[in-house]
Amino acid sequence: MELITILNRCHRFRGFVYEQARFSADKKSIEVAVRPRNGSAAVCSHCHLPAPGYDQLAERRFEFIPLWGFLVFLLYTMRRVDCRRCGVVAVEEVPWGDGKRTLTRAYMLFLARWARKLSWKETAEAFRTSWEKVFDAVEHIVTFGLEHRVLGQIDAIGVDEIQYAKGHKYLTLVYQIDLGVTRLLWVGRERTIESFQGFFTIIGDELASKIVFVCSDMWEPYLKVIREKCSEALHILDRFHIVANMNKALDEVRAGEARRIACEGGVPLLKKSRWLLLKREENLKTEQRFRLRDLLRCNLKTVRAYLLKEAFQQLWDYNSPAWAGKFLDDWCRQVMRSRIEPMKKIARSLRQHRELILNYFRAQKLLSSGVVEGLNNKAKVTMRKSYGFRTFRCLELALYHSLGKLPEPESTHDFF
Ligand SMILES: [Zn+2]
Fold first, then answer.
1. Does residue 366 carry a pLDDT above 70?
2. Closest Cα to residue 296, out of 281, 312, 283, 307?
3. Which CA distances in Å does 133 have to 110, 114, 154, 175, 407?
4. What is the rounded CA–CA span in Å between residue 288 and residue 293?
5. How much distance in Å is there from the Cα of 14 to the middle of ligand 1?
6. Reduced to 3 states, what is the DSSP secondary structure of residue 163?
7. Which long-range contacts (CB under 8 A, 24 or more apart) does 23-26 make?
8. Percent over 90 (pLDDT), the chain
9. How far is the CA of 79 from the centre of ligand 1 (A)?
10. pLDDT (tens digit, 9 = 90+) per residue, 95-111?
11. Which residues contact 261 (CB under 8 A, 6 or more apart)?
């Protein structure tokens, strides 16, 4: 069987003919000559309609999917057309590639699909291509996806902030969290009012007004935008963000007390206790559980903060907003007497956002809880997998690519 036969089977285009396949001079790549079918007119790249020929350009090489360790190139001499409709001399449009890129569409889709499973660097290495070409491929596929995605009605959104560039910078991510449809809708720079407003500009007022639930953390700029743009929606403070803040406060107490003990030359009781205190008890190993039990016998501020945090977990077991509210008030009162400043700060902020927290119970049956947390974890994995992404653009593409559930361009064949 000849290579041309296979190509005609999986990558055939009307109006073009595969002429012959041969090795390059160094035998490292396979070159396949392509020519227009006799009598078929070139297509104008402006209006996408056939137009009379004008002249020919130099031969171009389009990179195709590698085969058995050989790079594969399609060689084609682009024609130019004299298009009367457009009133210009334009380069023709070819179905396997686009004007500026050297990769064929099939190869871009192939690389982009792998780049969802591997890091971009690994993808480049696996197919002996460059990181830049993988970037190009993902950019092409994501751009297509964003142009062709259907937003439809959005019932619930979650807004989330995420740190990058070693924690010095923030992104704002907006997810759709409808039952049945969870996907990343939008990535914005920073975590300002303007960045979140960018999302509402994209979806427009009509879609925004139909949103029923909004999940967020307590970040004031987000709260402000939600009040303005989704005044009709039930706004819920996300459980996951509250727990994360609580853990942060506990960690602050622990770090402060450990430092104080070290300064005073005391017994370093809190050494290596960080994860003992932050993990849920059921996730600890037996040996860690014993150490935690010993630690909890000590008379430490950290221990009191830990017990307060653990007691707080009970909140999520309530079904009724009224009982949850009563529990929340009691807990806050207890914390305010504790003289543990980071925890008091949490209690003050919980009191301030009491109604938004209780909305969690008002909406509980209708929103799949933990969905924002799941998406946040996936976003972090994407960022971790993508060492080498330093710019906002790279991260934005990688996040849309792995979490956006974007439509892909059609292909002549499933190469992967
Ligand atoms: Zn034209």
1. no
2. 307
3. 12, 13, 35, 28, 21
4. 9
5. 19
6. strand
7. 23/70, 24/73
8. 46
9. 13
10. 999 877 889 999 999 99
11. 267, 268, 269, 270
Quick check: pTM over 0.70? yes
Element containing residue 17 per DSSP (H, E): strand 16-23
User: What per-residue string of b and e applies to 265-286 under the rule 16 or more CB within 10 Å gives b?
Assistant: eeeebbeebeebbbeeeeeeee
* Cα 51 to averaged position of ligand 1 atoms, centre (Å): 7
| CA 351 – CA 324 distance, rounded (Å) | 13
Give the model confidence (pLDDT) of 232-244 as tens digits.
888 888 888 888 8
Identity of residue 396: E
- Give residue 265 CA to ligand 1 midpoint distance, Å: 81
Q: Which two tokens stand for residue 169?
A: 């910078």
Give the integer Cα–Cα distance in Å for 103 and 183. 28
Alpha helix (H) residue ranges in 11-167:
105-117, 120-126, 131-148
CA distance 257 to 271: 11
Name the phi and psi angles at 2, rounded to 5: -95, 155
Q: Distance, CA 58 to ligand 1 centroid (Å)?
A: 21
34's torsion region: left (phi>0), alpha (psi -120 to 50) or beta? beta
Distance set, CA 125 to CA 118, 120, 384 (Å)? 10, 9, 18
Instruction: Supply 25's token pair.
Output: 């001079």
Quote helix, strand, coil % in the chain, to nearest 5: 50, 20, 30
DSSP 166-194: TTTEEEEEEEEEETTEEEEEEEEESSSHH
Cα 140 to middle of ligand 1, angstroms: 23
Strand, coil or helix: what is 50? strand
Predicted confidence band of residue 269 (pLDDT cuts 50, 70, 90):
confident
CA of 5 to the centre of ligand 1 (A): 33
Distance from Cα 50 to the centre of ligand 1, integer Å: 8
CA of 364 to the centre of ligand 1 (A): 56
Written as six digits, the tokens of 313 are 């977990």
Beta bridge partners of 34: 18
CA–centroid distance, 45 to ligand 1, in Å, is 6
pLDDT value of position 9: 92
